[in-house]
Structures are given as C-alpha cells and as structure tokens.
Amino acid sequence: MSAVDELIKTEGDGSLSFGNHVLQAKSKKEDYKHGGDLYKVKTFKDITKLEKNGLFVYESVPGTSVNYFSQTEEGVSFTVEGTDDAQITVGLAEDTEYEVIVGDRNAGIMKTNLGGKLSISVELAGEGEVELKIKKV
Asked: What CATH number does the domain containing 105 carry?
C-alpha cells in the first residue's frame, strides 16, 4: 500500500481510498462525489481528515494513508499505513458498543461517546499496512 496520489479515489469494490501521509504541505480535495454523497479530504504528514456531506467520518494524528475504507450501518473496515504510530478516530453511531480488531489482534469492545466518535491507538511505525475492522456488537 502507498499514499493515495489523487488524495481520494473510489476503488473497484466501491470502497474509498484517501490520504497521503508523506505530503509535507497541507492538501485538500473537496466535493468528491461517491455513492450520492460529497466527500472532503484534508491530508499531509501531521493529520488526515475525511468528511461526508460536511459531517465527521475519519481523523488520524499524525497523517495516514487509508485504503479500502468501507462504512455500513454495522461499522467500518479499512487498511491504514503511516510513518508513525497514530491516534485514529472514526465517526459511528453514538453511545454504541463496537468490537475492534486491529490487524490480527482483537482489541476488545469499545463504546462510542455521545458524538459517535471512537478513538483507537494503532501501532504503524515499521508495520507497513494494518487492517482495522470495527463492528457493532
């Protein structure tokens, strides 16, 4: 996996890939049409953010490159790559429990806050790509 040169793109399976963790300067792409929605991505080495129709979807600090991001009513799944370990926050249903799987490790059950955000620390330094699956319990 590598950085997404276009900043955001639709994959053949209908998922999204976005972000570029190696950019030195802030870059963004707005009004990207996917599945009837408008997406906006802001990314560079320090942060990556994704919004859908003006609402929060994903944020990582420092920046990451995300491939095959797929979101349903039941949760999200994607692969992520970064230069350093990252704090990743995703927007889900509020006050709901999710099972979190990072790579081949079950990180347990986590509950979103009242805003529907769930934050996960992911070890990325030297790991290459890491798969995340977050499923509603």
From this structure: 2.60.220
Instruction: Tell me the average pLDDT across 80-93.
Output: 96
Task: Output the pTM of the full model.
Answer: 0.95
Assigned domain for 30 exists = yes
User: Are the C-beta atoms of 48 and 63 separated by less than 8 Å?
Assistant: yes
Q: How far is CA 53 from CA 39, 106, 130, in A?
A: 6, 31, 27
Q: For residues 20 and 47, what is the distance between their CA atoms, to the nearest angstrom? A: 9
Tell whether the model's pLDDT for residue 93 goes beyond 70: yes
Q: What is the pLDDT of residues 47-76, one digit of tens each?
A: 999 999 999 999 999 999 999 999 999 999
CB-based burial label for 72 (10 Å; 0-12, 13-18, 19+): exposed
- The β-bridge relationship of strands 75-81 and 65-72 is antiparallel
For the chain, what is the domain count?
1
Cα separation, 86 vs 96, in Å, equals 23
Does 19 reside within a domain?
Answer: yes
Full domain range(s) for residue 67: 8-136
